[in-house]
Amino acid sequence: MGKVYPAIDGRLRDFLLAQPVFFVATAPTEGHVNVSPKGMRGTFTVLDGRRVAYLDYTGSGVETIAHLRDNGRITLMFCAFEGPPTVVRLHGRGEAVRPEDPRFADLRRAFAPDHEQHGLRSIIVVDVERISDSCGFAVPLMQYVGERRLLTEWARRKSPEDLVAYRRTRNAASIDGLPALDEAIGSAHEGAPASI
After folding, report:
1. pTM
2. How far apart, in Å, are the Cα atoms of 170 and each of 52, 130, 174?
3. What is the tally of structural domains in the chain?
4. CA-CA distance, 108 to 29, in Å (whole number)?
5. Of 85, 92, 115, 176, which is most buried, counting CB atoms within 10 Å of its CB?
């Protein structure tokens, strides 16, 4: 039987932080629904009982950022692939905080300082409105083998200018044509490691 929680407490927090993968769902007011898997341990954090955040790296798509600009709606889902069957969903309103935003440096400190900086596109912050779990009885048992390093290796082969150019051509709009990263984002410091 599912339960709704008033806040992300210690046990729930521990569960969320222990999962090696989670899923992000967003949808524009009109257009395609998007679901993205997110991995890389240490890229998700609980800021407080009703706020969470994750590091958003440069990638081939930009649906989450575009959808958040459109309406702010977001759901994060965490599944237990080992141990007791559990699914936790965090429904809320999100925002992409970019490196040029004055809040970025403080948010970045909420994550491990040694986590990859190069290629970091934004920090997605979610004000959680509903916290719930469900049984997860049909979620398969799977073994965690390890992290893929492909995304960070890809970004390391790019200069800061290469990353800016990539985002200009690949991250300007969603698949439905919604604006995601606008021209103000294309500054030269964009791909460079931020101070932490």
Report:
1. 0.89
2. 27, 33, 9
3. 1
4. 30
5. 92
The phi-psi region of residue 72 (left if phi > 0; otherwise alpha if psi is between -120 and 50; otherwise beta) is: left
For residue 164, the domain's CATH number is 2.30.110.10
Q: How far apart are CA 180 and CA 79, in angstroms?
A: 28
Whether 195 maps to a domain, the answer reads: no
Q: How many CA atoms lie within 13 A of 96 on its CB side?
A: 24
pLDDT in tens, the chain (196 residues): 689 999 999 999 999 999 999 999 999 999 999 999 999 999 999 999 999 999 999 999 999 999 999 999 999 999 999 999 999 999 999 999 999 999 999 999 999 887 778 899 999 999 999 999 999 999 999 999 999 989 989 999 999 999 999 999 999 999 999 999 974 344 433 443 333 2
